[in-house]
Amino acid sequence: MTIQQxxxxxxxxxxxxxxxxxxxxxSTENWxxxxxxxxxxxxAHLVRYYxxxxxxxxxxxxxxxxxxxRIKNIDFLKYPPSxxxxxxxxxxxxxxxxxxxxxxxxxxxxxxxxxxxxxxTKSIWKTKDIHNFKxxxxxxxxxxxxxxxxxxxxxxxxxxxxxxxxxxxxxREAVINxxxxxxxxxxxxxxxxxxxxxxxSAFFANKLxxxxxxxxxxxxxxxxxxxxxxxxxxxxxxxxxxxxxxLSEVHESIVIKDLSDGGGGLLMKGLxxxxxxxFENKLILWGESIMQPHEEIxxxxxxxxxxxx
Length: 309
Description:
Layout: H1 3-22, H2 26-35, E1 48-50, E2 54-60, H3 61-65, E3 99-102, H4 105-112, E4 119-127, E5 133-137, H5 150-166, H6 169-186, H7 199-210, E6 219-223, E7 232-236, H8 238-244, E8 245-257, E9 267-274, E10 277-278, E11 283-284, H9 294-304
Parallel strand pairs: 5-6
Antiparallel strand pairs: 1-5, 2-4, 3-7, 4-8, 6-7, 8-9, 10-11
Helix pairs in contact: 1-6
């Protein structure tokens, strides 16, 4: 690779970053989908094995059912069917479904950020058997709250060792520059009203999951932007999630305070817990016991249209 070719490649990455900063629209979306494959020759990534014995996921009921109605179908707590995925996500292209979860409940809550009045369902998924998942971790970027993530430093050190073994000269620099570009876009805040701004991370997530190592990568471990990059989210292929995980617990809560008042933090009132399921028919077997007094439930029904039937 000549110095001129390296300069042209770096120039392309700079153009991509400028488009990202301005916000991606219809025309730039189509152009980017045509232009991004120029990076393919320099695409390399660390592969590591992780054990996630338990994953947490938060579902806002109205996002699934259109109202504060109780979720009874187990599938509604997992991932959407690919045919109805019409927006980019951090790790998914359009018409591509991914299971998103976290190793801690607080990370999932911080990511989803439900609003006051939302009925939410917390689901806990456990592995059926011990399994070490083949994962691509996203690194290079440190937390933006003044703390340090030592795992990122270690992964970066391992990455440079592998790159030094496989590449040299200008080609090596192009590989490193692309890796930093990918990490930046996995950890970059995007406009929540413009899903196209996820295009960069979604494009490379697709390459990691479906092209790297012959498509054998099972998931991606990436920093939570809403958690100041201090904790990680887990994205798994749907078929991998279904193969290795089973629903263990579900918990219903109503959010009574969100972050919009500037006071910081969420306040929720627990409603119902459940550990009984009909897996054959994909049903959550909610009981009749409710944690809150009858008067409070009636208040929630009137104020938030709560429906636990």
